[in-house]
Write a structure and sequence with these properties.
The chain is mainly alpha-helical. It is about 65% helix and about 10% strand. A three-stranded antiparallel β-sheet has the order 1-3-2, covered by helices on one side. A hairpin with a 5-residue loop joins strand 2 and strand 3. Helix 1 packs across helix 2.
Length: about 160
């Protein structure tokens, strides 16, 4: 049995123990199960499960931070009389090459206010992104590569 399945079973068991099947209680149960499995880690031998979960959580926290910052930037631009938006389309060279990784990156970019993934080149070397604030195309390219793409690569590999 994989550690993910075992962790989910522990989370469901946690909810059953308290007879409270809410999303919050399930999340608490997952964290408690993760901690219990981490303590018992030597029994399972070498596994990448614990590192992968930490990297996925790191990606989630990074995405939520970007979501809040970009939302505030877009809201500020909409409610103030002086608009600072400079829309543009850029081609972001991709270091990732797996279709799932590219799909996750494109969707995370599209979910962030002010940016939208438009297309992937046929050779999967470039992701075309529309940005609401493209004063410096190279800066936006660097931000995507050093931020979102790096986090996706770390979490998915």
């Amino acid at each position: 049995m994989s550690l993910l399945v075992l962790n989910i079973l522990l989370a469901v068991g946690w909810c059953a123990l308290f007879a409270d099947f809410t999303l919050l209680n399930l999340a608490i149960g997952f964290v408690m199960g993760f901690a219990a499995l981490w303590v018992a880690g030597p029994l399972f031998g070498g596994t990448g499960y614990f590192g992968r979960v930490v990297r996925l959580v790191s990606l989630g926290v990074y995405f939520l931070y970007e979501l809040v910052v970009s939302s505030l930037q877009v809201v500020w631009d909409v409610i103030t009389p002086v608009h600072k938006s400079r829309p543009g389309i850029i081609a972001v060279p991709l270091d990732i090459d797996e279709p799932v990784e590219i799909a996750v990156l494109a969707n995370l970019i599209s979910l962030t206010p002010g940016t939208l993934s438009l297309d992937v080149s046929p050779d999967k070397k470039f992701l075309y992104v529309h940005g609401m604030f493209v004063e410096d195309p190279d800066s936006l390219r660097r931000d995507i590569k050093a931020g979102m793409e790096r986090k996706v690569m770390e979490a998915m590999r």
